[in-house]
Amino acid sequence: MTNTDTPVLAPDAWATLRRITAWIDNANGHSDHETAMRLLKLAEEVGEVTQAYIGMIGQNPRKGITHTQEDVADELCDVVVTALVALYRFADDPAGVLEAKIQKIAKRMEATDA
């Protein structure tokens, strides 16, 4: 990250994610089962994005249009938060891991554009 770049998430967002993760840890523990449940929760949230998108475009003629673009955006945010909370199970520095991944993708993109 160069000094002109801003972090992917503001530090206070990462602090909030740490609090969410601690809250879930306190309620559910740290077992392998809990890790699996967090990954399954991520899959559930992705399903909700799909459901919202199908509802937004009215794909189901029996139901018609049931969701808005804002509903899809809201569900996508749930996916992001759920993924970031799960990331805490696999990385001591989730912010650094996410930033490194974004930079890696950017470098591949730049190499492709060159």
Can you summarize this structure?
This protein is mainly α and 114 residues long. The protein contains four helices and no strands.
Describe the structure.
By secondary structure, this protein is mostly helical. The chain has one domain. It has 4 helices and no strands. Helix 1 (11-28) packs across helix 3. The model has no long low-confidence stretch (mean pLDDT 93). This is MazG-like family protein.
Alpha carbon gyration radius: 17 Å
Helix content: over 70%
What separation lies between the terminal Cα atoms? 20 Å
Number of strands: 0
What's the order of the H and E elements?
HHHH
Structural class given helices, strands, pairing? mainly alpha
Number of helices: 4
What form results from the Cα inertia axes? globular
SSE diagram, text form:
Elements: H1 11-28, H2 32-57, H3 69-87, H4 94-113
Helix pairs in contact: 1-3, 2-3
List keywords for this structure.
114 residues; mainly alpha; 73% helix; globular; AF0060_NTP-PPase_MazG-like
